[in-house]
Design goal:
Layout lengths: L2 H12 L2 H20 L36 E5 L6 H7 L4 H8 L16 E8 L2 E10 L2 E8 L2 E8 L3 E10 L4 H7 L4 H10 L15 E11 L2 E15 L2 E9 L5 E4 L19 E4 L19 E4 L5 E3 L4 E8 L5 E7 L3 E11 L8 E2 L4 E5 L9 E8 L2 E3 L1 H4 L14 H15 L7 H4 L14
Antiparallel strand pairs: 1-2, 2-3, 3-4, 4-5, 6-7, 7-8, 8-9, 9-10, 11-12, 12-19, 13-18, 14-15, 14-17, 15-16, 16-18, 16-19, 19-20
Amino acid sequence: MNFWGAAKLLISKYYPHDHLVLASALSLLLAVTLMFAPEESAHGDRINYDTPLNTSIVAAPTPEPVQVDQTPWTEHEVQAGDNLSAIFTKVGLDAQDMYRVLNSNEEAQVLNKLYPGYQLSFNISEPGTLSQLKVLKSPIDGYLFTLNDDAYQVEPIQRTPDIIETFKEGVINDSLFMAGQKADIPAVSIMEMADIFGGVIDFILDPREGDNFSIVYEEKYLDGEFIGNGEIIAAQFTNQGSQYTAFRYESADGEVGYYNPDGESMRKAFLRTPLDVFRISSNFNLSRKHPILNTIRAHRGTDYAAPRGTPVRATSDGVVTWAARNGSFGKLIVIQHNGQFETKYAHLNDYAQGLKKGSRVSQGEVIGYVGTTGGSTGPHLHYEFLVNGEHKDPAKILDQMPKANSVDPSELPRFRSHIREQLAKLHIRNTDTRILSYNTTTPRNQNSLAQ
């Protein structure tokens, strides 16, 4: 008997006929089910995701393409010696492009007076086509020229910086400028402070070791970045025990000046000196021996030794009556002031840009630069002061000169209210207590630039 025959005999012995029929039917059903079942993936186990109920599949909308200006801007910072034609050539533009901008409108004349530090930005949409030109005279001031229908339209750029008022104080151990440097005060602010007190303090002869000063000045920020210093709000200087305090004040009609606590102007009719950094190399002396001619010749002015290029300032308002070479004076400027006063500035290296005979100048305005032209043995400024055509020693006569206008009496309550606030900012401990004792109901000055 073979294997299958023995198996069949064994099955029939232990399982009834009915059970065998049922098992056969179930086997046939299982085979059919497996035949039509779907095949599993050939790449691994199936991953089942929980699918939320009520899922309707909707095609997501195609997003609109973002319009991005792909035109590059070419930046150029104006350097000393630059000219507009060379700048245009450097960025791939020609003279015709330059003249189209220059002749577009009146504001375009700013391009004819470029100064070092100006920022020019060129938007060249395709070779040889200037779509936009941005001219920034400072981070907050400039113009934007935009090409429109073959002509350029201009928009002014005016941004308002954030102003932070900063308080600093210093003590003089060697010089005012060294004291300012140690106190981390900008040099320009120290120079402006010297100008403010220039009518009452001679910063060459008067300062002494131990003198001290306090100052509140503005710092300007744009988008969180420091961009420069602003005005001095208030300042105090203690010189040899005498205390001087000055407050910046804008009157109701918009006139700005610096005044002491009584409302008197800090400004004298004339500054004591025409330079900020110098030493006196020769005083007014009618019996001085001339350094070149070696003979006794009157020295009818004051010589201020200073580095070549040091700015020279007009000591008072006036009109320029001479701005040219004049013999041993070299390059000379003469200014006629109100009334009988005249000043002369000799041996200049150069004149301020645009200065000429007939120009009106203001006190403190830069009119030229120290040089060594004419009969000069080294860089210095020769300064003369004349009254009715007669030479005078400015060191002796200036104390007799009148001050500029003081605060109008009708504005004194407004002024006193203003300076009380500035006094708190100065942190002055030993100031005149009269400032704090004024009684006034004048409302806070909302228009003051110092607030």
